[in-house]
Design a protein that fits this description.
Blueprint (H helix, E strand, L loop, with lengths): L5 H22 L2 H16 L8 H21 L8 H8 L8 H16 L5 H8 L5 H8 L3 H19 L1
Helix pairs in contact: 1-2, 1-3, 2-3, 5-8, 6-8, 7-8
Length: about 160
Amino acid sequence: MGMREALDIQQAMDRFGDDVWRACMLYLSPSDAEDVFQETFVKYAFRDHGFRDESHAKAWLLRVAMNACKDVLKSRDHRTSSLDEEMQRWGDTLADVRPERAAEVREVLDAVDRLDDPPKTPLYLAVCEGYSVPEISRMVKAPEGTVYSWISRGKKILREALS
């Protein structure tokens, strides 16, 4: 098994690193997210097959990252913690948010944190990453109708939780 060129890996990290990081942070604490982030790009480095285009590469990286996050969450020795505990460990991550908005941001993050998966992943891919339902359907290997239902259910749960 060969390894991609260093320049190819660096370009992928430059183009998609923020997207992969956000996906990891959706599921995990910063320390676990760092591990999954690195693991994702190591897998990219050793992937033998090319990609059709940039959107295919981004979708592949996000899927690998989210699957790895789920594996971390399922592991026996992974300690579950509340969003409050995670926020304490993260430090002042809301520093760039106006103080009067920080409570609202925290409320939204808490509501998203409580979502089951699905609908968490499909909703994230649609709302935060801008993927279409057909694209999400291919990524999560589920019928489009099911993806529409997951996204709709996720939005409904969030609306109810935030009202």
